């Protein structure tokens, strides 16, 4: 679990009416929602990809990732581009020599209702993540910040967007849908 020991700046955003924040260190930019290119056979939480200055950047709907339905596209819907490190990226970089910089991390877009503002939080404003009751996995939360009469959920974006977790979920989704065709008949490998 991450523990906040010094003041930090966090980007706040809303998702299905709840307030979240993530460390501004991971945020590279905030974009207005734009049409996504849908990639076939991806898990539901990968809504598609965007062309970001010539690079295909996957866009994750974290509402779906949190099992909270899907994000409804509206006027203030935003895509927050974050840069994450993941040990599995080094393996991907070894396999794909054209993916320059993959060993240094990956840019991923997260779809949110709206990006709100950047706030500075002191360590004493932040309480440890609860073991239960926040409605999402405890390892996705780095802490809870007191805010007026409510709490702001601070996300541990490296866990929320873990490439290895998402690849594993994608593999499971493909395995559960590949043995059967629409008629319910098992498909033999190599059959048309």
UniProtKB/TrEMBL annotation:
It comes from the Bacteria. PROSITE patterns: CHEW. Pfam families: CheW (PF01584). GO terms for cellular component: cytosol. Residues 7-166 form the CheW-like domain. One of its GO terms (biological process) is signal transduction. SUPFAM superfamilies: CheW-like. InterPro entries: CheW, CheW-like_dom_sf, CheW-lke_dom. PANTHER family: CHEMOTAXIS SENSOR HISTIDINE KINASE-RELATED (PTHR22617), CHEMOTAXIS SIGNAL TRANSDUCTION SYSTEM ADAPTOR PROTEIN CHEW (PTHR22617:SF41). This is Purine-binding chemotaxis protein CheW. It comes from Actinoplanes lutulentus.
């Amino acid at each position: 679990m991450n523990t906040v020991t010094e003041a930090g700046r966090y980007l706040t955003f809303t998702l299905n009416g709840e307030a979240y924040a993530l460390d501004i260190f991971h945020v590279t930019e905030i974009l207005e929602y734009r049409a996504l290119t849908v990639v076939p056979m991806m898990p539901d939480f990968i809504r598609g990809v965007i062309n970001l200055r010539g690079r295909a950047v996957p866009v994750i709907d974290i509402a779906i990732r949190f099992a909270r339905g899907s994000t409804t596209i509206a006027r203030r819907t935003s895509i927050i581009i974050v840069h994450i490190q993941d040990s599995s990226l080094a393996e991907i970089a070894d396999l794909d020599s054209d993916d320059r910089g993959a060993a240094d991390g990956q840019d991923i877009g997260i779809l949110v209702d709206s990006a709100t503002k950047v706030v500075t939080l002191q360590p004493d404003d932040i309480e440890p993540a609860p073991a239960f009751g926040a409605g999402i996995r405890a390892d996705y939360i780095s802490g809870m910040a007191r805010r007026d009469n409510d709490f702001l959920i601070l996300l541990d974006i490296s866990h929320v967007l873990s490439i290895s977790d998402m690849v594993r979920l994608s593999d499971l989704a493909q395995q559960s849908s590949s043995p059967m065709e629409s008629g319910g008949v098992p498909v033999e490998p190599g059959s048309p």
